[in-house]
Design brief:
The protein is mainly alpha-helical. It contains 13 helices and five strands. It is about 55% helix and about 5% strand. It has a three-stranded parallel sheet. The radius of gyration is 21 Å and the shape is globular. The structure holds adenosine-5'-tetraphosphate.
Length: about 325
């Protein structure tokens, strides 16, 4: 079985954007690939985190993966926490030594996350290398992701190629990003020029998977649209409305064309109300499963099994790479 790998950082509570770009794809592909689904908790500390909240968000993220439909009973499903495996950071160091600093500071996410900020951590520049390490340690062929992380998977490809060329061997497999056709960038509901983010300062534009029905309705009904009143998918001129149509498609399984047809001649209010109903139905079902999962031992069992399995693979790869670069004794 070819390998597929992805992770969602526990830097806050997961959003419908994280569902759309990350979790949804794992659910679609989980039966066909050996799946490595991890919690990249080390990525979350690129910005300051409250330790208790971080612990809580890690467990919550795993609970949500499972509640959304990740099947921990599949033998080929491996769930684990990044920081419980020391080889991620060790390989990252080796790769960092092969990465020009300028390559990191030119990245879109670095520019976005440091805009108008001072005193940010060096890790905001280097975390894409840790992400490359997360991927390359396991010879993952496919990396499902939203559009924002595509450039980071490209860095992982560059590093794999650079290492293989420098040390003349097939040490790392070239990973490929897997971007969904629809929903690769869910936008902020209040400011559709931005992507929806779990750590956005204004939470009115973000729908969290654990939001209450009241909040979901309020956020959808208050979403920024435009004033021409015509329901049409046009990301350039109608980014707010197109975003709502995209979210509708992700959660209903209907194509955007089918949704436009369904709401032909209706006002934006009608579309918004129907979308709010749909999200409330889907998210309350996820929340009910989540509650049961959080009260059971499913999470710990899955994480223990995943840690044991993935640590062995990571250790073998790291030992090979460590010797190849000349670390330690002959
Ligand atoms: N708005 C989005 N639309 C589609 N996909 C998205 N992803 C994130 N936001 C959207 C995808 O979710 C997966 C996990 O991302 P992450 O949590 O590891 O990091 P992120 O991309 O930085 O997500 P956030 O929500 O924006 O987190 P913060 O606010 O902490 O930076 C990835 O596949 C990502 O593409």
């Amino acid at each position: 079985m070819e390998r597929l790998l992805t992770g969602l950082q526990p830097s806050g509570s997961l959003t419908i954007g994280n569902f759309s770009g990350g979790i949804r794809q794992v659910i679609d592909y989980q039966k066909n690939y050996e799946t490595f689904l991890f919690v990249p908790d080390m990525h979350a500390t690129t910005v300051p985190q409250d330790p208790y909240a971080l612990h809580r968000n890690i467990k919550s993220a795993v609970g949500l993966y499972i509640a959304c439909g990740v099947d921990v009973n599949l033998e080929n499903m491996h769930l684990y926490i990044q920081s419980e495996n020391l080889y991620h950071a060790n390989l990252s160091w080796i790769l960092e030594c092969m990465t020009p600093f300028g390559e990191l500071t030119r990245m879109h996410q670095f520019k976005e996350k440091t805009k108008n900020k001072e005193g940010f951590s060096a890790a905001l520049a280097t975390y894409p290398v840790l992400m490359a390490s997360d991927i390359l340690l396991y010879d993952a062929k496919y990396v499902p992701t939203g559009i924002d992380q595509k450039q980071h998977v490209e860095l992982a490809r560059n590093l794999a190629e650079r290492f293989n060329e420098r040390y003349k061997g097939d040490y790392f497999l070239m990973p490929e990003p897997v971007i969904p056709q629809i929903g690769a960038k869910i936008r902020d509901l209040k400011d559709p020029s931005k992507k929806m983010s779990k750590s956005a300062e204004n939470t009115k534009g973000t729908i969290f998977l654990l939001d209450s029905e009241k909040d979901i309705r309020k956020k959808i009904m208050g979403a920024t649209t435009d004033s021409d009143g015509i329901i049409k998918f046009d990301e350039e001129n109608k980014p707010g409305l197109s975003n709502l149509l995209t979210i509708y498609s992700v959660f209903s399984g209907l194509s955007v064309d089918e949704i436009v047809e369904k709401f032909k001649g209706c006002g934006y209010g009608e579309l918004k109300k129907s979308l709010a109903d749909l999200l409330c139905e889907k998210l309350t079902a996820i929340q009910a499963r989540y509650k049961e999962i959080m009260e059971s031992d499913i999470i710990d069992k899955a994480l223990d099994r995943g840690r044991e399995y993935t640590e062995k693979i990571a250790r073998e790869k790291y030992e090979l790479i460590r010797k190849t670069v000349g670390y330690g004794r002959i």
